Amino acid sequence: MADVERxxxxxxxxxxxxxxxxxxxxxxxxxPKCCAKEAGLEAWEYLxxxxxxxxxxxxxxxxKANCLxxxxxxxxxxxxxxxxxxxxxxxxxxxxxxQEHLIGGRVVExxxxxxxxxxAAGETACPTIExxxx
Length: 134
Known about the structure:
Distance between the termini: 47 Å
Structural class: alpha+beta
Order of helices and strands: HEHEEEHEE
Shape: globular
Low-confidence stretches: none
Number of helices: 3
Mean pLDDT: 89
């Protein structure tokens, strides 16, 4: 059985209990499809650097995903808990997402193509696709 107390210490050291938002970025794919491998890696390095420079690591978590299964117009990113999906996430677009969404709490509508917010226990969420009819 795992030493759960040790895991709790590690989580606290990474500020996991304080996370307000979590951004996943499709980068460094095994088989690049949504964008060139170099573009994905450039976006990832930019995201890591800016989150550190801005001192956001204690409230914003970042994860490099191998693939988010949207294999067009990448790099693709998703921000939780809002569940906002972004396309064409270049360093310039990432800067807007960082400033406007991660810090300011305002979604960067210009690059949104879907939403699937997390909900409280017992609630259900119905993801929406931008531009799709209900």
